[in-house]
Amino acid sequence: MKLVGMFDSPYVRRVAISMRLLDLPFEHLNWSIGKDQDQVKQLNPLGQVPILVLDDGETIVDSATILDYLDDRVGPERALVPRSGEARRRVMGATTLAAGLADKARLQMTELLFRPASLRHPPLLARLHGQMLAVAAELEKLCASSTTPYLFGDRISQADITLGCAVTYASETVKLEAPLPAVRARWARLAELPAFREIYLAFDAPVI
User: Fold this and answer.
1) Which region holds residue 17: left if phi is over 0, alpha if psi is between -120 and 50, else beta?
2) In which region does residue 28 sit, left (phi positive, over 0), alpha (psi from -120 to 50) or beta (all else)?
3) Residue ranges making up the domain that contains 65
4) What pLDDT digit, counting tens, does each position of 44-88 carry?
């Protein structure tokens, strides 16, 4: 399989880390949605990454759809999201919050990178930043309430993976300045896992 997209994207990162944890080998195509846009659009008309190209040439786009495919491929015993019931709802809920943190940081970066300073809309940036901090506060409560090695037990789940990727991205880009001691302590433990270290060192991500 081929995974398309740069590891500076939290969405590409969470797919790459998931594939490492599930022992699914892939070739990494380090394409940028900027300079490699024409190549990206040949695989995904939306011009977005990540893209997973299967061995038969089929393409799967959007990280959530790719992650669902990966879980289905390895089966319920190894899947990173439980198949059903309360366990699934809890993992999905936390994963959605963490992905939302990354989304709010990305939207701020879009405004800062692509809009001239004279045309930026400070109220929008303030609103996005406030939403990001509100989500971070909810994740802090969740992390502080968990007494297990991972958010929902002794096994890593997609909630943990997405949390690590989202907090790192927000810290790298829009300076997630909130203290978040429980979140950052959990991130530090995740960062020591070989799958995280490999993917993060590939992009030379900073410690937060």
Assistant:
1) alpha
2) beta
3) 2-74
4) 999 999 999 999 999 999 999 999 999 999 999 999 999 999 999
Report whether pLDDT(9) > 60: yes
| Residues 61, 128 within the same domain | no
| Threshold 0.70, pTM exceeds | yes
pLDDT tens profile 165-191: 999 999 989 988 889 999 999 999 999
Binned at pLDDT 50, 70 and 90, residue 208 comes out as very low
Q: ω into residue 181 within 30 of 0, thus cis?
A: no
Query: Do 105 and 179 fall into the same domain?
Result: yes
Residue 152's CB is within 10 A of a number of other CB atoms, namely: 17
Q: How many CB atoms lie within 10 A of CB 175?
A: 10
- The predicted pLDDT at position 200 comes to 80
68 vs 139: CA distance, rounded Å: 23
My answer on whether 91 and 54 are in the same domain is no
Residues 94 and 163: their CA atoms lie apart, in Å, by 8
Tokens of 148: 């297990």
- Name, in order, each residue with C-beta under 8 angstroms of 203's C-beta and a sequence gap of 6 or more: 6, 7, 8, 13
CATH number at residue 166: 1.20.1050.10
Integer Cα distance of 45 and 48 in angstroms: 8
Residue owning tokens 């937060």: 208
